[in-house]
UniProtKB/TrEMBL annotation:
Native source organism of the sequence: Eucalyptus globulus (Tasmanian blue gum)
Cited InterPro entries: DIOX_N, IPNS-like_FE2OG_OXY, IPNS-like_sf, Oxoglu/Fe-dep_dioxygenase_dom, Plant_2OG-oxidoreductases
Domain spans labelled Fe2OG dioxygenase: 213-313
Gene3D superfamilies on file: B-lactam Antibiotic, Isopenicillin N Synthase, Chain
Similarity comment: family membership: Belongs to the iron/ascorbate-dependent oxidoreductase family.
Gene Ontology MF, one: oxidoreductase activity
Record-given protein name: Fe2OG dioxygenase domain-containing protein
Domain of life: Eukaryota
UniProt KW keywords: Iron, Metal-binding, Oxidoreductase
PANTHER family: OXOGLUTARATE/IRON-DEPENDENT DIOXYGENASE (PTHR47991)
Length: 363
C-alpha cells in the first residue's frame, strides 16, 4: 500500500503557493465538474496502456484458505502448492473462505466511508508530517510536494504492534480493532503457508521476520467518481513495501496487476480478499516471489474504496534472503543491510526526490 509503497507522480520541491489543496472527494462533489483541474492530468494517459481481462486459461489464481488451514494433509499440501504457483506466477491472488464474516467486512467499509464523510477540518487534524506518523489522512500521494495529483484521498493507520485510529466517526475504532485482529491471524496463517511453499519450515518467516512485533498498517483509499477518468490516475504502478498485503474493496473495479507484460484487471469477487506479494517477501525469498506491480484506475460513475492491510517484519528487522534459497547461481535479490524502518524511509525519499517508479526503487 502506498504508505508502504510510495507512488510515482512527478514531484517538485514545493507546490505552487496559490494551489489550495482540496480533497478528491470535495472536488468530485463540487457542482458541474465537467473536467478535471489541470494538475490532475497525467501527461501519459492510462488509455495508452489499457488493461485487459485475464485469459480464460490464465486467470487470476484463487486460493481457498479453508484448504490451507485444513487438517487433511493432502488438501493442505495441494493448497500450499497452489499458493506457490500463485505467488511465483502472479504475485497476486484472490483469497476465499478466509473466515472473516461478511458483516465484519461491511462494517469496516462503512466505518471508513464514514471517516471520509467527516468535514475536511476534522479529517485534516490527521494530516501527518512524517512517513512513520501513526495516523495520516491526505490526498494524492504527498499533496505538499506532488506536482501532479492522484485522484484519491487516503487514511493510513499503524494498527500493530500498537493500535492507532482516529476517534471519529464514533464506533470506528472498535470496528477496526476487531477487523485488524482477524486480519493479523489470517496474515500469520498465510505466511506459514508461504513459508512452506518456499520449501522452508512453516515457522521460518514468522521467526525470521519477527512477526510477533510485525509492523501492520491499515489504509483506506477513496477514489471518488472522476469526470475524466482516462486522464487521471488513482495510484500509479508500484509495489508494496511489506511482506504481504491483504486488500478488501467494495464491488467496484479499478485494481490492475502487471502480468506477462500486460496490465490485467483484478475484478472484485464478492467477499474475497485480494492478496499480493510485496518487497520484503521478494528479498527474503531471494527473488523467487517477485513483489507484484499493481496500480489503480478511476471511473466516472461510482466511488471506489479499497482497504489494504499490510504485514511487514518488525521495524528493526534486517531482511535477508533465506539461506536455503541462495544457491550462488541465482542470487536475484541483494542483501540490502537495511532494517525495515530504514527501507521504508529510503523508498519514500527516493520516490519523493527522483519521482522514480517505485519498482525501480526496489533493490
Ligand atoms: C495500495 C494499493 C490498490 C487499490 O494502496 O498500495 O495498491 O486498488 N491499492 O486501491
Ligand atoms: Ni499497493
Amino acid at each position: 500500500m502506498d504508505t508502504v509503497s510510495p507512488v510515482a507522480p512527478p514531484h517538485q520541491e514545493a507546490s505552487s503557493p496559490q494551489l489550495k489543496i482540496t480533497s478528491a472527494k470535495t472536488l468530485a462533489e463540487s457542482t458541474n465538474l465537467a473536467s478535471i483541474p489541470s494538475h490532475y492530468a497525467f501527461t501519459t494517459p492510462t488509455s495508452g496502456d489499457q488493461a485487459v481481462h485475464p485469459d480464460h486459461d490464465d486467470s487470476i489464481p484463487v486460493i481457498d484458505f479453508s484448504l490451507l488451514s485444513s487438517s487433511n494433509p493432502d488438501q493442505r499440501c495441494k493448497a500450499v502448492s497452489d499458493l506457490a504457483k500463485a505467488c511465483e506466477d502472479w504475485g497476486i491472488f484472490m483469497l476465499i473462505n478466509h473466515g472473516v464474516p461478511e458483516s465484519q467486512m461491511k462494517a469496516t467499509v462503512d466505518a471508513l466511508m464514514g471517516f471520509f464523510d467527516l468535514t475536511e477540518e476534522r479529517k485534516n487534524e490527521f494530516q501527518g508530517k512524517h512517513l512513520l506518523d501513526p495516523i495520516i489522512y491526505g490526498t494524492s500521494f504527498r499533496a505538499s510536494v506532488d506536482k501532479v495529483f492522484l485522484w484519491r484521498d487516503f487514511l493510513k493507520m499503524m494498527v500493530y504492534p500498537k493500535f492507532h485510529c482516529p476517534p471519529e466517526p464514533e464506533g470506528m475504532s472498535e470496528v477496526l480493532a476487531e477487523y485488524t485482529g482477524k486480519l493479523r491471524k489470517l496474515a500469520r496463517e498465510l505466511l506459514k503457508g508461504v513459508s512452506e511453499s518456499l520449501g522452508l519450515g512453516p515457522g521460518y518467516i514468522d521467526e525470521a521476520m519477527n512477526i510477533d512485533s510485525s509492523l501492520q498498517i491499515l489504509a483506506a483509499n477513496l477514489y471518488p467518481p472522476c469526470p475524466q477518468p482516462e486522464l487521471a490516475v488513482g495510484l500509479p504502478s508500484h509495489s508494496d513495501i511489506g511482506l504481504l498485503t491483504i486488500l478488501m474493496q467494495n464491488d467496484i473495479s479499478g485494481l490492475q496487476v502487471h502480468h506477462g507484460g500486460k496490465w490485467v484487471k483484478v475484478d472484485p469477487i464478492p467477499n474475497a480478499f485480494v492478496v499480493n506479494t510485496a518487497d520484503q517477501l521478494e528479498i527474503m525469498s531471494n527473488g523467487k516471489y517477485k513483489s507484484a506491480l499493481h496500480r489503480a484506475i478511476v471511473n466516472n460513475k461510482t466511488t471506489r474504496i479499497s482497504i489494504p492491510f499490510s504485514t511487514g517484519p518488525s521495524l528493526d528487522t534486517v531482511v535477508v534472503p533465506a539461506e536455503q534459497l541462495v544457491d550462488g547461481k541465482h542470487n536475484q535479490a541483494t542483501d540490502i543491510s537495511m532494517n525495515y524502518k530504514e527501507y521504508m524511509e529510503f523508498k519514500q525519499s527516493t520516490v519523493l526526490h527522483k519521482g522514480l517508479c517505485p519498482n525501480q526503487v526496489k533493490i
